[in-house]
## 1
Amino acid sequence: MPVLSEKSPVTFRDELPEAVDVIIIGGGIAGICTALFLARDGISVLVCEKGRVAGEQSSRNWGWVRQMGRDEAELPIMMDSIQLWEGLAGETDNQVGFGRGGTMYLAENEEEQAEFEEWLAVGKQHGLDTRAVNRGELQKLLAGAADKWCGGIYTASDGRAEPFQAVPAIARVAQAAGSRIIENCAVRSIDAEAGRTCGVITERGRVRADAVVCAAGAWSTTFLGNLGISLPQLVVRNTVARTGRAPEVFPGCAGSHRFAFRRRQDGGYTLALSDHLEHFPGADSFRYLFKFRRAFNQIRHALRLRPGKGLFARLFPQRRWQADEVTPFERTRVLNPEPYPWAVEELRRRMAEHLPGLAGVDIEESWAGMIEAMPDFVPVLDQVPGYPGFYLATGFSGHGFGIGPGAGRVMARLVQGNPPGYDLTRFRFSRFSDGSPIIPGPAV
């Protein structure tokens, strides 16, 4: 299952229409699910993807579909989202790879156990089945695990899905519902008349629309910057790997502050380091440093600053362009960072150390993804202030895959002027400029 890149075959080739009701910028989980729910409501919708559907973080994430540990404002959306995943599994003959194997957070000491248990009150308030587990229960739940963890918390109703498969499968459902999806079609700018959004200008031409949704992931700040809109969003790199077929030690997702793993539909495991996020400083790192100070402090144990290649370009990025110019989105169709070499060897070591039952299993592939993060680790789901008809769904901060279907339904309702069904105050765009304190939610 090779990672998608600019060289991957183009799969979605619908014709560019002259006009639709809604245009969505970005073919990741949030954009595709927004398209699906709009189409089911009878709205004509076009998804423009600069590279490949799910080519970036939507196919490179850990594959967790979890309710446990969420920011309290996200939890109601996520609890509905997991039901939507179950429905999508039924519609696609489970091409999305969904299953309810449970999620566990694993504590190495009593301090970590107490930290995890602080969230139990949130889960209980919302009727979730999360509970604390002790060392003895862990030994029963984790077959063949080493005696490294003293306890944790466990949510049996949580799920998992297969990122490489899921979003393209949902995109096919969206197409069947009437959505048009085009790969290799970058949106260069918003089109506006009399101060209201009236469409977009793509590399292939102009398309009229009553509303536009930007779900551009790690590219959102760049796109908005060309419009003179400041969005405090930064990106970090995370390396992930997968094993070959392996004995089942746990049927779901589990992780500590150091090591995470998920059972795969193909019988292997997805592995990741929980304590290794790499940030490559650039102009935006300094521009938004004050807003991110609490977030950086919260994840300081895991954050690594890397100069990396392209430092000059990051310090002096292209900020503005005209709609008839080639844009950064066309120069880089798919963000395809190299996995950090040391990370793969460290994953192999930690797998053997923590899960002796998997010690002889080969790591068959590794990859990396660029995660977009907000200063408070929760997304923006809102209309952009001052831009009627222009909406934003971005900044999921590594938590977007699981909540994607629920977030897509929220955006579909917002675009149609319908009640979203949830309190979206925490996800408003203006929280970064209205003087409100920036309070990070859970970063795991």
Note: The radius of gyration is 21 Å.
## 2
Amino acid sequence: MKERFAVIGKILLSLVIMIVLASIGTILLQAIDTEDSNAQMLVSSLSVMGAALLMFYLFDRKKGWSLGLNRKRTRTASNALLGLGLGILTISISFAGIWLFGGLEIESAHLDADTVTGVALSFGAFILVAFGEEMLCRGYVQGLIKNRYGANPAILFSSLFFALMHLANPDILSTPFPLINIFLIGLIFAIAREKTNGLWLPIGFHFSWNFLQGNVYGFAVSGEDIKTIMTISPHGSTYLSGGDFGAEGSAVVTVLMLIVLAAALRSYKRRESIDPSKYVKA
């Protein structure tokens, strides 16, 4: 029981640290009088990343498991590239599916200087978003739980934590699908972390999914609007289009993520046997 409370306490403390860091960042943004979405993403990402690093190095660095960033260069590159490819493929299929079923209308595409600048800034911001969220959810929370209770509880509860982290996003409770889809995506990322024993595949997947979803295909990203090359408008039922939340609010994405999850689970079950009590440092 004491050990369980210690784990819960560390997870809650990581949230407190994240909120404090984000509040400090927000105050700084207000001081310089900016509401730029990329600046806000930067503050959010650094807050999440800072919480993960502080918790790990203050409490768990010597416990025999790692955050999942220490990989051989060749494996890091191959896993990151695989993740990038999977993210590009799945968000492209999602966009095509929603469009084919009449859930969106393509209004225009543009590459003016202002758009290119905004997209370039978002490119860097989404890299930090992927690093930050993966370091906290799959790196720290999943690693912490696995070290105590094994891989399967770690996969489940880190994915639930990932979904609940998004409760502050606009329109996330507009339908059941945003939370369901984020939870399913979290499960896929968590299985990828476990399968590869590192964060690089989920980081690559997370980045390319977000970047193409928002900056290329024109969806809101988890309810947040950003600069985009393609301008689209949702049509018909919110359950199909995703509405103001973006592609992650669509039932099309739910179906696709269930298919990807089934494939990930099948691959995970065929993995080589590893010590379930901890992540091996590499």
Note: The chain has one domain: 2-269.
